[in-house]
Fold this protein.
Amino acid sequence: MTAVTRIVGFVVGLVVVFALALGLGRVVGPVGEPAAAHAGSADAHGDADRSAAAADLPGGLLVSDAGHTLRLSSPTAPAGQDVPVTFTVTGPDGTAVSDYEVEHEKELHLIAVRRDLTGYQHVHPTLAADGTWTTALDLEPGTWRLFADFTASGADPLTLGTDLTVPGTAALAAPVPETRTVTVDGYTVTVTGDLVAGQDAALTLSVSKDGRPVTDLQPYLGAYGHLVALREGDLAYLHVHPDGEPGDGRTQPGPDVVFHTSVPSAGAYRLYLDFQHDGVVRTAPLAVTATASDHPAAATPRSSSTTSDHGDDH
């Protein structure tokens, strides 16, 4: 065999080896691909863990949950009366949701409160065909927390929260001690019942006027009263539902309105009771302190509790 023949044979051998290696590489994939696939699985597992963690949170702490996001048209608004505020709720596909279930006579309930727990407002925005909600709020300078309480068609009930900044200078309100009796426009509202972290509780709110019990409360949003509970500090929005409803044959139109709730932790909670009498809706702000439980109950995931209870909290 000549030197030239040996060289040609060597080159042909290299080409064959290279071709085999390339073909094998295409079959098994690049080095490290299994690890990359494992990392992807870890990411998916992490997303599942985050979703499970979100399900255990009280409402209103998240701007996005279960594929839905609360989006303000602007993160700021001027101070003033009847300030227009617009927003959308986008769904899992990223587009604005325009089809909602009616809950307590409305498709969406918007709660606005300044972060010092003053200026509470409960309004019902107007929905445009493109999924844009519009309402008007009375805003003082400060940071406001907005809670959108809704059920998109085909989805579970949700309460999403986001902040709205109102530029300007305003003094923060002093902390409020426990307040179980308050008078608003001549009406006195008293709350009885105790809150214990992790346990179901019944709160009775009694309405009187000029020292006489009010026994002819008018239905408001399908009940004789509407109660919102917020945890001081992070403003967690708690689900509260009334016991009974007008026309059920057992629920009286006052003076007592009973609500059921469960608080996740000990500490201070602010209660806002909306009630209607003589054709006017009034709001009574109260403050109750929850105590720690000696035998804390297991937390109930929000994904299951909202389905059964949320339909009755507005």
About this structure: The chain has a mean pLDDT of 83. The helical segments are 3-28, 33-55, 302-309. The chain has three domains: 3-55, 64-166, 181-312. The domain at 64-166 is CATH 2.60.40.1080 (Immunoglobulin-like).
